[in-house]
Every structure is written in structure tokens, then in C-alpha cells.
Amino acid sequence: MRFSTEKSRQMYQRTLGVLIEASSSSSRGPATFGQCPIFMEKGKGSRIYDVDGNEYIDWMMAFGALPLGHSHPEVVEAIAEAAATGAHFATATPVEIELAEIIQKIVPNAERVRFANTGTEAMMAAIRLARGVTGRPKILKFEGHYHGWYDDVLVSSNVLPPAALGLRSDPVKIPDSSGLNRTALDDTIVVPWNDLPALERATENHRGQIAAIITEGVMANVGVIPPAEGYLQGLEKLAKANGIVFILDETVTGFRIAPGGCQEYYKLSPDLVTFGKALGCGLPVAALVGRAAIMGALQWGGVLHYGTHNGSRIGMFAARANLRALTRDNNAPFADTWRLADRLCTGLREIFRERGVPAIVQNVGPMFQIIFTSQPAIRDYREFCQFVDRTAFQKFVLSLFPLGIYASPSAALHSIVTLAHTEEDVDKTLNAATRALEPSVGTSA
Asked: Per-residue pLDDT tens for 361-395?
């Protein structure tokens, strides 16, 4: 059967008068896909199917929100059970307690739990909480890290020309959007990541003013960039020595790297942690967890955090089923995804090496990204901006679509191995990658 996306093209034309960029998020539109996005109709396991009937092995998995894959039977059953007995009550519910207890059991330092709907919302609450308990105005974030579309952190996250970034010793704060409150970033400090001396200088320059240091455990907004050895531990030590709340953003890494996320894997002890994406296994569920002494300030009359849909009952049922499946058999699913990811990444590296293609594969466990570069490694945002060929990556990924492989064409995002993926999926993907590097393979149909 010849690969065709004609129905997707027709649907894209239908969107032009009703939607912006064909969807409800700019990362899904033509800016990412080059022409028009492919419209997906259904998913099962590791596969997704578009409106033209094409089948793909899915390595994007809803930007990593599906650690069990598509339509996992236990999650489907849980959603059906919740929907049949009441979608949402906006009251206290037993399932909320049960899910919080599971999180408390598997996540270090989750002494208290508060549910939200998205990672952005959880981070907004975390920042307000840190400012409230410390009485300090400033927050510190890192170049290239994305913590949601909240005004205070929407800065220096997008890939930009290196000349726009300023000096490493004095980074230029570059807003990611028009329409921000004109004073929103006045109290936001931006520092290069993986650079402990730079962080030490920033804390010294703003001594007694910083409420929180916010970081991802693995930089996941520009491919996959692991922390340098000892960096996160040094960050934590510095925060605690200066009375600064250490916020670990696990919206991307949570329930993927390990049951307890990056804080478990890197042996960290953050004050507050945010979760999203993979927690709800496809439903909008997020959580803010942390030390009881800090989280307690969310009580009435302290730091306000409302939300009609916080703790949505259907989402709670889905998340509970998700975490039960992920932690089954003494957390065996995590070991399985790490093993499969290692085989896939090793195979891709070998293909690029054999064909002399200037590309590397960076991964932390099941999170991985192909990076077209001549550098041996990409260690931070500035190196990504300077050395990564994003056009070559997009061309490569688009050439995989006709071969039945789906991933985000954005070089700044990444792929994920899930419990649904199989050895056969790895074999087919490696074969497709080999074919995609042949000059005769086109990028569209």
C-alpha cells in the first residue's frame, strides 16, 4: 500500500478557518511538521493510526505522557469505571487518598501531595509556595529549561541564535512570548545549566533574595541532556546552605526514569517536586509534592491554590491504574524500558557510525534523542543552539513517516521508550533508520 497523507491534508485545510496551527498547541502544527501535521485517529499499544489508515510505531507517545503506551487495558478499564459512576464531584474522594498514598510510597520526600491538572499549574503553585514560605521575591531558572507557560518562567527556553544569548557570565534574559506582563521577569534570574560556578555567582549576587532554584533533573526541552556528575548534588547543597527552596521539575522525567523519578535516580532531596505528563497516562493529571513543613502553607489562609478540576475523578482513577502497573513486580517495568532503550540507542549509534553520519544519540534510560551534530556530546543549551543541525533532524524524522515510524520532527523535543514497545518495534525502527539514510528515500508523499 502506497503511503499517503491526503486525508490529513484535507483535514488541515478544514482547520484553517476554525483552529490556529491545526490544533490546540503550537508544537503540533506546521511549524514543527514542515507542511501540515498528520491527523491521528486511534492508538493501541506502541502503535498509532492516522486518518489515511497508515500505521506507525510511536516513539513520541504524546510527548511522553503515555508510559504504558496507548489504550492500556487497565487504564481503559479504570477510566470506564470512573466515567460510569461520576466524572467529577469537586469534593473530597477516596481515590484521591489512594493515589496520594501510592505517590507517597514511591516518591522520596513526598510527605504531602496536592493535585493539579498540568505541569504548568503545579509549577505555578510551587513558585507561589516558595515565595510564600521564604518571604523572598526572586526565583532562579536555567537556560533551556521549560517549566510551563507561566509568565515568570517563560524566558530563555526556545532555541535561538548563539549570538543572541549574551555571555555565559551574564546571560541575556530573552522572553519566549509576546504578551507577558511587562514586570513578570523582573524577579527571574537566568543562569546557564551544568555550570556550578555560574550558579554560585548568581546566588552570591542575589544573597537573601532568592526564594527558589528550579531545575529539571534531566534537561529535556532541548533534546536529552544529562546533568554533569555532581552538578545536581552541588545545586542542592547550595540551595540548602542559603535557605533557598529547591524545586525539582519532574513534569517530564517523573514516572519514566525511576519510580521516584530523578530524585531517586540521582539521590536528591528536593523541597518541592512537580509532576505531570506521565502521571495521568494520557489524562490531564499533575501533582505538587514535598516536605510537610513547606506544603502545609497551602492550608486555608496561607498560600492560595484553587482549581475546580484539581483531583479530577477520572484522572485519579487513570493515574492510580497507571502507577499500579508501572510499579508491579518490584518495579520491573522500569528495568524493561531501560533495557529496550539501551538496545535501540546502541543500534542507532551504530547505524550513524557505520554510515559516517554526523549524529549522536543521547539518553537517560528510556528518554532519548537523536542529535545531528559533529560534537561528541551536547552538554547544555548554549551548545545545542550552536552545534545542532535541527533541519537535518527534521528531514530525517519526516523520512521515517512513510516507513511506519513516528516521532516528533522537532529536534528540541525527544522520544520515549514505553512499556508497550517491543523488540520487534526496535528491529523495525533500526531498519527504517537505515533506509531513511539512503539518498533515494523521500520525506513526503
From this structure: 999 999 999 999 999 999 999 999 999 999 999 99
- Name the CA dihedral angle for 61, 360, 437, 389, rounded to a multiple of 10 degrees: 90
Helix, strand, coil abundance in the chain, percent, nearest 5: 40, 15, 40
Q: Does domain 6-59+331-436 have CATH number 3.90.180.10?
A: no
Whether residue 277 lies in the annotated active site:
yes
The model's pLDDT over 257-295, given as tens digits with 9 standing for 90+, comes to 999 999 999 999 999 999 999 999 999 999 999 999 999
Q: Spell out the alpha helix ranges (H) of 266-389.
A: 292-295, 313-326, 328-355, 381-387
Q: Model's pTM, two decimal places? A: 0.95
CA dist., res. 251 & res. 148, Å (int): 9
Domain with CATH 3.40.640.10 in the chain: 73-326
Rounded Cα distance, 177 and 166, in Å: 19
Beta bridge partners of 45: 70
Grid cell at residue 119? 505541569
Calculate the alpha carbon distances from 167 to 68, 141, 161, 162, 387 in Å: 42, 16, 13, 10, 17
Q: How far apart are CA 360 and CA 373, in angstroms?
A: 7
The boundaries of every CATH 3.90.1150.10 domain in the chain are 6-59+331-436
For the domain spanning 73-326, the CATH number is 3.40.640.10
Single out the catalytic residue among 146, 266, 381, 406: 146
If one counts every other C-beta atom within 10 angstroms of the C-beta of residue 211, the result is: 24
Closest of 276, 31, 404 to residue 23, by C-alpha: 31
Q: Which residues contact 316 (CB under 8 A, 6 or more apart)?
A: 82, 93, 95, 96, 99, 115, 285
User: What is the gyration radius of the CA atoms in the chain, in angstroms?
Assistant: 22
Which residue out of 249, 271, 380, 425 is catalytically annotated?
249
Is 249 noted as a catalytic residue in this protein? yes
Give the number of other CB atoms < 10 A from CB of residue 384: 25
Alpha carbon distance 228, 88 (integer Å): 43
- How many other β-carbons are positioned within 10 Å of the β-carbon of residue 229? 8
How does the average pLDDT of the chain come out, rounded? Answer: 95
Of 12, 277, 380, 425, catalytic: 277
Whether the per-residue pLDDT at 95 is higher than 50: the answer is: yes
**How many degrees, rounded to 5, is the angle at CA 62 between CA 31 and CA 343?**
105
At 16-72, the pLDDT tens digits run 999 888 888 877 777 777 778 899 999 999 999 999 999 999 999 999 999 999 999
